[in-house]
Design brief:
3 domains, 16 helices, 10 strands, alpha/beta, Rossmann fold, single chain, six-stranded mixed β-sheet
């Protein structure tokens, strides 16, 4: 799912809430201002507008819960108008029924049946109108401004492929733009065509494409952070994470690199923001002490800003300086002492470049605390694979690059399982397992185990 689709899906909740509030207010003023001339109301004295607003908020919360249960907040690329309207009617009816039962049992809210029935009617009208408006805005931005479109390469030359191609061309608001169309290409031709800037999705429409070539294309898409979809045949077994969709009435399966998607991705980002902000505030005094110690022992900056890769993006990783000034210049002279000969990584147990203060910082992972700023900026996460150096990645084999499927993290499954003492292949296996089996509970467990290991794990020293 592209970021634009994620944004519009998330915006539905606050839009629904605003529409529900508007529905409640419209119902109140319709009864007390317009219809009061036909039948005067007495409850206005017992239910002033200020008190009624509190009731609206409570009723809106009930409706929102009902909408969530009915699946109106499921993240989806496309939403059918009639199906969505039906869910709004059913969920609104369930919500108002819950409120009626509450009124019946308490017998103390208000006496006007119009407020109840009017709220139900206007909730359906306002919420459906709000969602229709959001859909129109999204379609306008997609069709006229190319906002968040899927730039796709289509592989296939049969009748099914032509049906999909024609549907995409006839419906620009659907969000797809065909950049390349290859009838029956070799894998090398697909790889070469992807080099054309702008392709972010490969759609295999030919269900009879050779299985060995499909696997190679899937691996290529994962390595290059491309979405891979196909008309299903036997290939669902290629991954544990997949999603179903339809295009022009043809079923499609999307192979996902990770279980981290949708609301899980949003929740993880919120936790990252709150956790990093809280950590930076709490650790501010500790930062001052560490900065003084680093500066006191050796000349050079307090912080180092190291180039790393997180997902598919390069960024500057912030750490407290634990080595002498310009330590990177001496790396080539120490290559013969590298203890990680099994991998492209560089590690020396008693690295002579590390300062005395630096050894203490590394022993207790204190040098990594500034990475909380990277988390707050969204460059890495609290939990994820280790941030990778660009020069190390150049030496990675094909299966090693799977660890780049999601954002890197301050800590991760590999770190709590042995960190740099692990063989590189085992580290990759652990990170790959985390990526493919991500869950919020897994993140919570890793964070707890990280805290417990801080005082006794000396592998970073």
């Amino acid at each position: 799912m592209k970021r634009s689709e994620l944004i519009f899906s998330v915006l539905l909740l606050p839009v629904d809430l605003m529409m529900l509030m508007a529905a409640g207010i419209a119902t109140y003023f319709l009864r007390t201002r317009i219809l009061s001339s036909f039948r005067p109301v007495l409850f206005e004295f017992n239910l002033p507008f200020e008190k009624y607003l509190i009731l609206i908020v409570a009723m809106s919360a009930v409706f929102i819960i009902s909408y969530a249960i009915s699946g109106l907040y499921q993240l989806a690329s496309t939403r059918r108008t009639l199906e969505e309207f039906s869910k709004v009617v059913i969920a609104s009816s369930a919500g108002i029924m819950a409120i009626i039962i509450y009124i019946f049992l308490r017998q103390e809210l208000f006496d006007s049946r119009f407020l109840v029935l009017g709220a139900w009617f206007f909730a359906i009208v306002f919420v459906s109108s709000g969602r229709l408006l959001m859909r129109r805005i999204q379609r306008y931005l997609v069709s006229r401004r190319d906002f968040g479109v899927h730039k796709v390469m289509i592989i296939g030359g049969d009748q099914t492929t032509q049906k999909i191609v024609q549907h995409i061309r006839d419906n620009p608001a659907f969000g797809y733009r065909i950049v390349k169309h290859l009838s029956n290409p070799e894998v090398a031709e697909v790889k070469s065509a992807v080099g054309n800037p702008g392709i972010d999705e490969v759609l295999l429409a030919n269900p009879n494409y050779p299985a060995d070539k499909v696997i190679e294309i899937v691996e290529f898409c994962h390595e290059n952070h491309l979405t891979f979809r196909f008309v299903p045949n036997i290939y669902q077994t290629l991954t544990a994470n997949f999603a179903f969709d339809a295009l022009a009435g043809v079923p499609l399966v999307e192979l996902k690199r990770t279980a981290l998607d949708g609301w899980g991705r949003i929740t993880k980002r919120i936790i990252d923001m709150l956790g990093s902000l809280f950590g930076l505030m709490i650790l501010a005094p500790v930062f001052g002490i560490i900065a003084f110690a680093v500066k006191w022992e050796t000349e050079g900056p307090v912080f180092v800003h190291l180039e790393r890769v997180s997902g598919s993006k390069r960024f500057k990783l912030h750490k407290f300086r634990s080595m002498i000034k310009d330590a990177e210049r001496y790396k080539a002279y120490l290559a013969a002492f590298n203890e990680r000969a099994d991998s492209p990584l560089f590690k020396i147990k008693n690295d002579p470049r590390i300062t005395r203060a630096g050894r203490l910082l590394r022993r207790y992972r204190l040098d990594e605390f500034p990475q909380l700023w990277n988390v707050l900026k969204g460059e890495i996460s609290l939990v994820g694979p280790r941030p990778h150096q660009p020069d190390e990645i150049e030496g990675y084999e094909k299966h090693h690059r799977r660890v780049l499927a999601i954002k890197a993290g301050i800590t991760g499954l590999a770190q709590i399982s042995g960190s740099s003492d692990l063989p590189f292949e085992e580290e990759v296996a652990l990170d790959t397992f985390y990526i493919e089996n991500w869950s919020l509970w897994q993140d919570a467990r890793i964070l707890i185990l990280t805290i417990l290991k801080l005082l006794r794990d000396k592998s970073a020293a």
